Amino acid sequence: MSTPDELDLAALRAFLSERDVACPSCGYNLRGLQSPACPECNQALRLQVGLVEPRLGHFIAGLVGLAMGFGFCFIVGLWGLFEAPRATMLIPLAAGVLVLGPSLVVWVRGRGKFRRASDAARTTMVIAAYVLSAIFVSWFLSQAK
């Protein structure tokens, strides 16, 4: 009697026997693979069902919101270094870059957890991303007057 691991390996071998499929980690062509790991990067592989079109709308919307705020703070901050604005303007810009930059990294690195969240939770996170960006942009604009 075959174990689930042996059946999974047999299915993976059968799938890759006649197909050119790139390793998701390094891009190596896995055609004819006999082991459950990529021979190039040694990452473990498994055959699984995936979505044809993953639902990324909420993820991308939040990413855009954070990127707009970070981009504004970063670009205006660079401009401010050369144009010598008031010191009160540099504080919200620096804070925006220091908060929104890591927020972008956390957003992108947490995309798996984000996909598993409910629609309501994803919508709340997207709204929070835009509100966070709006806080820093409005803070800067209030200091620019």
How would you summarize this macromolecular structure in one to three sentences?
This protein has helices at 4-16, 57-83, 87-109, 111-116, 119-144. The protein is mainly α.
What would you note in describing this structure?
The longest helix is centred in the middle third of the chain and has 27 residues, at 57-83. The mean pLDDT is 85. This protein is elongated. It is built from 5 helices and no strands. Helix 2 (57-83) runs antiparallel to helix 3 (87-109), helix 2 (57-83) runs parallel beside helix 5 (119-144) and helix 3 packs antiparallel against helix 5 (119-144). The protein folds into 2 domains: 1-49, no CATH class; 57-144. The chain has helices spanning 4-16, 57-83, 87-109, 111-116, 119-144.
Draw up the topology in text:
Blueprint: H1 4-16, H2 57-83, H3 87-109, H4 111-116, H5 119-144
